């Protein structure tokens, strides 16, 4: 478990780099720091690149507005790291965690903020879009190798770090609660989004029912296997590993695969202008080919039967979350300009429609991929 070591208070907003430097000094691997700079494009955690005489590392503060029990994250990651070391070359590559001077993998500051230091994977990059069929196959392969690895580990060793993750019914209820006091809405974009969502509440209810009946097996999942959470080599041809492991916990393979497809097979960035959404079925085919060539034995027939609906559900769920956050004043997902979360919501809902328009072809593709291995 994480121990508390006191340090000077750190402001909760606009963290100054000199304060980050104080935190870095509590990790032996960061001794001899040359400079520290903000790092990454993530929506959630505060991340910094720490350049030292020995190399470069990632220093992160876990966002406790999102993860109320960061010690659960660190316990999961410690167990995962130990399991990976035990399996050696049979385990997929994952970023290494480095201990604080206390010997713990996390340092808790005077304000209660939880910090950790991770390996910065050298000669790597993240891709914003899939540009070649092989890249989609590599994404599928990487997720499949992770699922196969964690399937060997006892589920009871993993704690829930985000209990409401992919609880679509709860996300819908939160949106409805936010809308209840709004007697009139003038923005036609919001009105259209609400109408679209209301027409698909049955999908959420059906998925909620089958989960409540425990017909879909719980597995260990990544929780957020989007394209930007997969590192590629500098050529962009070979995927190296999954990153951003905070949401590893018991969940559904359906959610992981559908979320991965959602982020990879939309041909345009979620922050681009409305109307630019295209679901790339060829990309989906390659991703499925890479994934099911390895992970097909893990899947049950009922999971395969629900995969198309999961492909619809995940962008619908995310669209609901973006819309709710827009109405709440952008408290969860970071934005760079007003209305960005509304734009993201509209694009996710457009992706749902694009997937639904290809239902027959996608159901056929799923059957071919799952049964082909």
From TrEMBL:
Pfam family membership, one: APH
Domain of life: Bacteria
UniProt keyword terms in alphabetical order: Transferase
One function term, GO molecular function aspect: transferase activity
Coiled coil: none
Matches recorded under InterPro entries: Aminoglycoside_PTrfase, Kinase-like_dom_sf, Pseudomonas-type_ThrB
Residues covered by the Aminoglycoside phosphotransferase domain: 36-278
The UniProt record lists the keyword NADP: no
Record bears the keyword Transferase: yes
Name the UniProt record assigns to this protein: Aminoglycoside phosphotransferase family protein
Upper classification of the organism: Bacteria, Pseudomonadati, Pseudomonadota, Gammaproteobacteria, Chromatiales
């Amino acid at each position: 478990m994480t121990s508390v070591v006191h340090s000077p208070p750190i402001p909760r907003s606009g963290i100054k780099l000199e304060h980050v430097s104080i935190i870095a000094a509590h990790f032996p691997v960061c001794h001899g720091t040359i400079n520290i700079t903000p790092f990454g494009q993530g929506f959630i955690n505060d991340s910094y690149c720490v350049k030292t005489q020995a190399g470069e590392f990632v220093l992160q503060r876990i966002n406790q507005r999102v993860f109320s029990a960061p010690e659960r994250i660190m316990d999961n990651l410690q167990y995962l790291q130990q399991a990976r070391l035990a399996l050696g070359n049979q385990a997929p590559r994952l970023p290494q965690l480095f201990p604080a001077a206390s010997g713990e993998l996390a340092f808790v500051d005077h304000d209660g903020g939880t910090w950790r230091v991770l390996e910065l994977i050298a000669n790597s990059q993240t891709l914003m879009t899939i540009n070649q069929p092989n890249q989609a196959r590599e994404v599928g392969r990487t997720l499949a190798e992770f699922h196969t690895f964690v399937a060997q580990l006892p589920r009871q060793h993993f704690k829930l770090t985000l209990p409401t993750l992919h609880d679509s019914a709860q996300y819908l209820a939160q949106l409805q609660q936010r809308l209840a006091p709004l007697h009139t809405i003038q923005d036609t974009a919001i009105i259209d989004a609400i109408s679209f969502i209301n027409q698909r509440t049955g999908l959420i209810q059906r998925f909620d029912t089958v989960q409540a009946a425990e017909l879909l097996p719980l597995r260990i999942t990544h929780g957020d296997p989007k394209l930007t959470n997969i590192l590629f080599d500098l050529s962009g041809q070979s995927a190296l590993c999954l990153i951003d492991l905070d949401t590893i916990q018991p969940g559904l393979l359906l959610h992981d695969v559908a979320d991965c497809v959602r982020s990879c097979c939309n041909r345009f960035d979620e922050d681009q202008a409305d109307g630019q959404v295209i679901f790339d079925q060829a990309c989906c085919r390659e991703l499925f080919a890479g994934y099911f060539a390895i992970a097909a034995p893990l899947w049950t027939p009922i999971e395969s039967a629900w995969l198309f609906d999961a492909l619809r559900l995940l962008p619908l769920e995310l669209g609901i979350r973006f819309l709710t956050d827009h109405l709440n004043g952008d408290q969860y997902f970071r934005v760079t300009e007003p209305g960005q979360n509304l734009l993201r919501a509209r694009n996710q809902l457009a992706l749902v429609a694009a997937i639904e328009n290809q239902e027959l072809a996608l159901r056929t593709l799923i059957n071919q991929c799952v049964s082909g291995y």
